[in-house]
Design goal:
Layout (H helix, E strand, L loop, with lengths): L1 H44 L3 H6 L1 E9 L12 E4 L1 H15 L7 E8 L2 E13 L5 E16 L2 E9 L5 E6 L5
Parallel strand pairs: 1-6
Antiparallel strand pairs: 1-2, 3-4, 4-5, 5-6, 5-7
Amino acid sequence: MKSHSVLAGLTCAAALLLVPTTALAQGEANASAEAVARTYMAHYSDLELDAMAAMLAEDVAFRDPTAESEEYGFEGLSDDGREAMIGLLREFVDTYQPIELGFEWDQVYTSNSRVVFIGHVNALYPTQTEGQHFRWRSEQVSVITVQDGLIVRHEDFANYATPEQGLIAAPTDH
């Protein structure tokens, strides 16, 4: 009996020693994933599509279930693969000519290689009137999954129902 309890005690002690090592490794993995995702989202915010493409896995999944429309259906926007995703974004840029998406993140956290961004999109578009832009601002959550240093899944959830939108003054160059 005594040897059994000693063995159980040693097993528990060994398991407890592994917890900090595992937590430390997970913490390092989360920090690495967050660094990759923050860089990627900065490129997304500035619509730097080639830089984004370089960070995507070939089979990346892109989802925006909140982009429900007649064209996309009830499930919203969905594309698989780097070429399809970047092609979709290029089409958006070519059609609407956004200046930037202008993300502002109030909160960012990482859990198990998923980096969650909570904040707003502040998209700016040119207008035909000099000195003004059109701004489309909405709450947005983006979840970016990182694996082996590449983005393998990108999910956006935007409040398309009640965005703030209107004309604003364009910044002046000094």
